[in-house]
Amino acid sequence: MTSxxxxxxxxPDNIDVAIGLRVRPDQEHLVAPVVKSLAEAYVYPGTAWPRxxxxxxxxxxxxxxxxxxxxxxxxxxxxxxxxxxxxxxAAGEQGRxxxxxxxESVAAEIRRRGGSRLTVSWHxxxxxxxxxxxxxxFRPTGEVTGGQTVGxxxxxxxxxxxxxxxxxx
Length: 169
Fold this sequence. Notes:
Blueprint: E1 5-9, H1 15-20, H2 34-43, E2 48-55, E3 58-70, E4 80-89, H3 98-112, E5 117-122, H4 130-135, E6 139-145, E7 148-155, E8 162-163
Parallel strand pairs: 4-5
Antiparallel strand pairs: 1-2, 2-3, 3-4, 5-7, 6-7, 7-8
């Protein structure tokens, strides 16, 4: 993995670059395009956290996290979660550590905000990203949202470290 990976806020100067990012054609049905994510970020400004992933000055991906989301949507606040909403790694950049960097960056931001778990969902199946998330330590919760498997990663409060839930190891 390269050591020059960084996140950058989406701005008028880089929005076209972000929108132009494309996953592999065989993955397009698994993740919404960046333009949809940016529209959702506009509609959910207090929750969505969109970021361009750069390797030096070269765009390699896009992520959008969510923070303090009422997961049940019932207004009770009994299940508030933060996590990774979208992850689009450019077709030619996959397998170089960009996705891992993205997940670690979201985990660090959740910890910075006082959170202790990272939630993600993915399309199940052989072509989906389940193996990637499971390899990073995510464990399925048994929930399904929008036809997607929900997984969680419990976070240490230390620097850049995470682990799966001890009950599920």
